[in-house]
Amino acid sequence: MHILLGLLGSLVTIFYLLDRLGIDIGGMNPFHWYRRHAFAKKYGSDPIYSIEDPVHIAALLVIGAAKLDGDVTAEQKNAAQDQFVTEFSMDEREASQLFGSAAHLLAAPQLIDTQLKKLANRNKDGFSAEQASSLMRMMVKVASAGGSISVKQQEFIDSVRAAYIKEVRGEGTWA
């Protein structure tokens, strides 16, 4: 027993001296390493992929479909806010804030196509059949608000339709 206490005391002394010399020994702690790794992974990832609420995901997909051809026009913005008010049962201020946050998250135009496809595939199980059909209607109305739907927008809408409307899922509404 006295040998074990001597070894433990020696280890504590060595760790204390290393700490006093400025050598970081925190990397030897597996719990500290795991927390640091999880934080770095969460901090370095795209914030779009941390969204789990179907309303916010739907808003991102609707605004993203309109933004695939470039900037969102005033007609598309008004159509999106009107759709948010009617479909999500929001007031005008909440719809405006939802539009602003979705447009801000989709600020990098060169990444929109890949971000939206990953977001759609990652969250396709969180939507009921009613929500998926409502999402498709909103995407078509907002994308066609500024004129006709482009080929790129139609391909994206068709890919989301193929991913979301495969089978009948559980019933649910947006509210």
Would you kindly provide a written description of the structure presented here, covering whatever features stand out?
This protein has 175 residues and is mainly α. It folds into two domains: 2-44, no CATH class; 48-164, no CATH class. It is built from eight helices and no strands. Helix 3 packs antiparallel against helix 6. The protein starts with a helix and ends in an 11-residue tail after the last helix.
What is the secondary structure topology, with strand pairs?
Blueprint: H1 2-20, H2 30-44, H3 54-67, H4 74-88, H5 92-105, H6 112-122, H7 129-143, H8 151-164
Produce a short descriptive summary.
By secondary structure, this protein is an all-alpha fold. It has helices spanning 2-20, 30-44, 54-67, 74-88, 92-105, 112-122, 129-143, 151-164.
Key features?
175 residues, 67% helix
Question: Which radius of gyration do the C-alpha atoms yield?
Answer: 25 Å
- Strand content is under 5%
For the record, give the distance between the C-alpha atoms at the N and C termini, rounded to a whole number. 65 Å
Largest sheet: none
Total helices: the number is 8
Mean pLDDT: 86
Q: So what's the overall shape?
A: elongated
Q: How many structural domains can be distinguished in the coordinates?
A: 2
**What string, H for helix and E for strand, traces the elements in order?**
HHHHHHHH
| Uncertain residue segments | none
Structural class: mainly alpha
The helix fraction, in percent, is 55-70%
Tally of extended strands? 0
